[in-house]
């Protein structure tokens, strides 16, 4: 009986379980049927074969090389043998010959040296005389050799310097129509370059290239019929030590008052195309002339904003013309390709390309003709009369043509673009919601999630790139890309791209059972990416950043292809929308890779010559630029990876590339420096120092090698190679107690890396004995009022000197003889004001006369110290080989061949008064 009951109960339970199982199966079938019903509304988009994405990737690589190679496309150089056939053309071989003579026959041309003041001046004069002898009879040429003394306040964002100069030479040439009196002449066009160089550099590029170009331009226009406006050619003899010669011309020369337009020609990296990187903002018509006349455009607002925000540690004579010649409309051009050679011994003829010279010559000839025929040059107003002006947005496309428009137009265009992008994204989201049978709130939620996923992918990608930058720096492997820029692709591009594609991949994988196909999710991701860019466009436009145009380009093409996809209903016809979308991003990608290549060329070499390079991790800059290039150049391609078969293998490919490139970066291949190509820079001064107390007694005296480094690695790469470097010590303590560390900085900018530089005690340099050595003597110190004393000093010595003055706390300088009014700003060092005076003497520097200056010091009522200020003299023997000791020469020779070592001797004298 008991067993029967148990059997009955068990049977009932089994029947109940079977009933529930059948019910669950029916529910599952119903759910599956519902999902199939939803999916059946639209065709299922099968995953695309992997080879298509590989093809897309290879096309992107090809586009990158196309963008990069366009920077190196030049016109065919014209040789001297072709001169009869091209009598009205710029002959690049002639310019090349001028450069070769300056760089090879003369060599370095530092102000004050015979090379600069005699040999270079004589050569340029001889060429001018030859041009005059063979000129067109309708042309009249005047030329002058001017020698000037002067001073001015040179300002920058970080520093302020009083520039004193004596015996500075300029060679000035005027080319005009014959039989036109000077009183009838007006509206000159001025071309400017400089023939001096930095120490120990032959200066084939900076600025021998532009001197050669100007000599050939002078020859060419002397053969042509006269222009409407006179041409002025200024060959200035002192730019490298503080832009002194251009200042001398601006404030002294009678021709300056009639100069309306300046074409400044510079070199910050020999070779390549001349980049037109800034104009005077008040004269937007300059860009119109450039646009309509120059055959080989190479210009961008991005470079202008980078330069004007101080990211490039260089300055040009353009600055002086803008400050001291307020009526002048000006262009600033510069070669900037091989900046590794800039200011080094490698700035030689091997870096000069005749095609590059032809490119520059053709452009400047066309620009001069365009300016000469323009009406604007005759209708110019002074800058002070221009109450309102609109800056210009400008950029070229692969050197083929130039696009430019006003900033106001840019604001309007960007605003309209933002509006239409918002509308089309909204329509696409609505269409997605409608086709998927979703409620409005569900459709909006799906888009918000897609937007969140895209933002998350970008943030994680950028974060990973920055973390890699941090790790490489911590491990001492920074700058592996310095000589091998291709490493950037694997180290930074691949991780960023991986994250940008992997985060959406995870989300789609998580939603793989969703009735919505991957194709629609990818479209949402692309719309989300566009939304991110359009928001960025709106923000940058609102901030007045003209470079915002870079965000407008890809989004504008996105709008066009999306509109076509909507019109032809490709979004619902399989993967047809994808092909149109990819085709639409080809031109933007080429442009972004072109711009990215330009940024790499401009900014990567700076990491080895920055005055504050030791204090900054250069990996962050390179990682940031790469993330930006990847975002703009491939951002619209990253989401579509999720439409392909075996997508996880595609993603894994980027990880593998990253790991391989990271391993390569850790090997000798990743060593940053290469001989003659990308050398590490050092400046070493063999220095004798003497510090005097207020009572005239010496408080400290020593001699040593002051080792100045420019980049993040400092002297670490040579520590185990140069035996004497093991004795090097940091100078932190002296930087905390002495003015500018008590070191002989060549200019005040060198104080930027001071806390990272080193000192090696040594024998004294072979400087002249006391009666003949440089001096800074107190001529007179007298009280002129309560708590005020006037000091008169006399300075004499070498052709390159500086004076540093620092009042103690409780004291201040209220007047001086250097400028009419006291500067409102001075560099602070250890919470004390420091005034830096730069002195340079040019021609006849061996017979320089003493220079006298005065200043007034005011102290507080309760100032009780025995002296109120410190003053120091720094004298440099840049071109005096007889001051070099055998030990110092051996020390320099012990540096490896992949270094560039500037070196000379110096004297540092410090006093308390």
From TrEMBL:
| Residues spanning the membrane | 50-68, 412-432, 444-472, 484-508, 520-543, 549-568, 589-608, 620-638, 650-671
Q: Provide the Gene Ontology terms for cellular component.
A: endoplasmic reticulum membrane
GO biological process terms on file: proteolysis
**Annotated membrane topology:** Multi-pass membrane protein
What InterPro entries is this protein classified in?
ERMP1-like_C, ERMP1_1-A_TM, Fxna-like_M28_dom, M28_fam, Peptidase_M28
Domain Endoplasmic reticulum metallopeptidase 1-like C-terminal: residue ranges: 679-911
- Name all Peptidase M28 domain ranges: 170-367
Q: Which residues form the Endoplasmic reticulum metallopeptidase 1/1-A TM domain?
A: 445-664
In terms of Pfam families, this protein maps to:
ERMP1-TM, ERMP1_C, Peptidase_M28
Primary localization class, coarse: endoplasmic reticulum
**Domain of life the protein comes from:** Eukaryota
Protein keywords = Endoplasmic reticulum, Glycoprotein, Hydrolase, Membrane, Metal-binding, Metalloprotease, Protease, Transmembrane, Transmembrane helix, Zinc
Where in or outside the cell it occurs: the entry states: Endoplasmic reticulum membrane
Which cofactors? Zn(2+)
Q: Extract the GO molecular function terms from the UniProt entry.
A: metal ion binding; metalloexopeptidase activity
Give the family, as the similarity comment puts it: Belongs to the peptidase M28 family.
What protein is this chain from?
FXNA-like protease
Organism classification: Eukaryota, Metazoa, Ecdysozoa, Arthropoda, Hexapoda
């Amino acid at each position: 009986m008991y067993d029967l009951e148990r059997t009955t109960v068990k049977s009932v339970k089994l029947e109940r379980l079977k009933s529930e199982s059948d019910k669950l199966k029916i529910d599952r079938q119903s759910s599956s049927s519902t999902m199939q019903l939803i999916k059946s509304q639209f065709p299922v988009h099968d995953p695309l074969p992997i080879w298509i994405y590989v093809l897309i990737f290879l096309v992107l690589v090809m586009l990158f090389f196309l963008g990069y190679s366009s920077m190196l496309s030049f016109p065919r150089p014209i040789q001297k043998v072709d001169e009869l056939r091209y009598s009205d053309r710029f002959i690049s071989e002639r310019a090349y010959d001028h450069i070769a003579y300056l760089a090879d026959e003369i060599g370095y041309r530092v102000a004050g040296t015979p090379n600069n003041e005699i040999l270079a001046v004589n050569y340029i004069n001889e060429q001018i005389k030859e041009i005059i002898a063979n000129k067109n009879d309708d042309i009249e040429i005047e030329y002058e050799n001017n020698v000037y003394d002067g001073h001015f306040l040179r300002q920058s964002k970080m520093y302020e310097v009083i520039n004193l100069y004596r015996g500075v030479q300029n060679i000035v040439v005027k080319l005009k129509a014959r039989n036109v009196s000077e009183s009838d002449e007006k509206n000159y066009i001025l071309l400017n370059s400089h023939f001096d160089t930095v120490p120990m550099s032959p200066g084939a590029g900076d600025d021998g290239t532009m001197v050669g170009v100007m000599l050939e331009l002078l020859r060419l226009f002397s053969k042509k019929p006269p222009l409407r406006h006179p041409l002025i050619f200024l060959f200035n003899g002192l730019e490298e030590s503080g832009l002194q010669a251009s200042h001398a011309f601006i404030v002294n020369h009678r021709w300056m008052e009639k100069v309306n337009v300046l074409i400044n020609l510079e070199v910050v990296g020999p070779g390549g195309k001349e980049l037109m990187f800034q104009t005077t903002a008040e004269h937007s018509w300059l860009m119109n002339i450039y646009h309509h006349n120059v055959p080989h455009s190479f210009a961008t607002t991005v470079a202008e904003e980078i330069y004007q925000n101080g990211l490039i540690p260089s300055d040009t004579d353009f600055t002086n013309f803008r400050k001291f010649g307020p009526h002048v409309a000006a262009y600033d051009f510069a070669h900037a390709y091989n900046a590794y050679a800039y200011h080094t011994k490698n700035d030689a003829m091997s870096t000069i390309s005749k095609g590059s010279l032809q490119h520059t010559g053709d452009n400047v000839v066309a620009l001069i003709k365009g300016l000469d025929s323009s009406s604007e040059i005759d209708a110019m107003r002074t800058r002070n009369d221009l109450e309102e002006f609109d800056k210009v947005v400008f950029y070229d496309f692969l050197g083929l043509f130039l696009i430019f428009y006003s900033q106001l137009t840019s604001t309007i265009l960007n605003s309209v673009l933002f509006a239409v992008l918002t509308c089309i994204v909204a329509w696409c989201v609505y269409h997605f919601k409608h086709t998927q049978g979703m409620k409005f709130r569900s459709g909006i939620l799906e888009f918000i999630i897609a937007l969140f996923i895209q933002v998350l992918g970008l943030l994680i990608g950028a974060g990973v790139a920055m973390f890699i930058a941090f790790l490489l720096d911590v491990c001492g492997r920074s700058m592996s890309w310095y000589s091998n820029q291709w490493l950037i692709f694997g180290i930074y591009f691949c991780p960023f791209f991986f994250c940008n594609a992997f985060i959406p991949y995870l989300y789609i994988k998580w939603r793989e059972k969703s009735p919505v196909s991957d194709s629609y999710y990818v479209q949402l991701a692309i719309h989300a990416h566009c939304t991110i860019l359009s928001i960025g466009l709106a923000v940058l436009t609102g901030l007045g950043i003209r470079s915002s145009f870079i965000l407008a380009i890809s989004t504008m093409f996105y709008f066009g292809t999306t509109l076509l996809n909507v019109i032809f209903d490709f979004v619902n016809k399989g993967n047809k929308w994808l092909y149109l979308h990819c085709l639409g991003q080809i031109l933007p990608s080429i442009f972004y890779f072109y711009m990215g290549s330009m940024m790499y060329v401009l900014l990567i070499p700076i990491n080895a010559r920055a005055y504050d390079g030791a204090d900054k991790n250069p990996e962050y800059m390179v990682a940031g630029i790469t993330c930006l290039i990847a975002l703009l150049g491939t951002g619209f391609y990253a989401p579509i990876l999720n439409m392909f078969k075996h997508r996880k293998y595609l993603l894994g490919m980027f990880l593998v590339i990253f790991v391989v490139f990271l391993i390569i970066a850790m090997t000798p291949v990743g060593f940053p420096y290469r001989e003659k190509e990308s050398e590490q820079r050092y400046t070493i001064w063999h220095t004798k120092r003497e510090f005097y107390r207020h009572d005239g007694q010496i408080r400290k005296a020593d001699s040593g090698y002051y080792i100045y480094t420019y980049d993040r690695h400092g002297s670490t790469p040579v520590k185990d190679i140069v035996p004497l470097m093991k004795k090097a010590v940091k100078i932190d303590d002296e930087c905390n107690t002495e003015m500018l560390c008590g070191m002989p900085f060549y200019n005040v900018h060198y104080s930027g890396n001071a806390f990272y530089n080193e000192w090696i005690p040594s024998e004294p340099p072979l400087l002249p004995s006391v009666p003949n050595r440089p001096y800074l003597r107190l001529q007179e110190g007298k009280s002129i009022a309560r708590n005020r004393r006037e000091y008169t000093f006399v300075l004499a010595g070498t052709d390159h000197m500086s004076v540093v003055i620092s009042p103690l706390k409780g004291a201040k300088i209220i007047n001086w003889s250097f400028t009419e009014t006291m500067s409102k700003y001075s560099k602070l060092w250890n919470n004390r004001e420091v005034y830096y005076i730069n002195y340079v003497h040019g021609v006849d520097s061996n017979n320089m006369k003493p220079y006298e200056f005065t200043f007034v010091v005011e102290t507080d009522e309760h100032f009780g110290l025995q002296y109120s200020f410190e003053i120091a003299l720094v004298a440099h023997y840049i071109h005096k080989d007889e001051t070099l000791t055998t030990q110092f020469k051996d020390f320099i020779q012990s540096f490896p061949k992949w270094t560039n070592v500037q070196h000379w001797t110096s004297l540092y004298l410090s006093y308390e008064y």
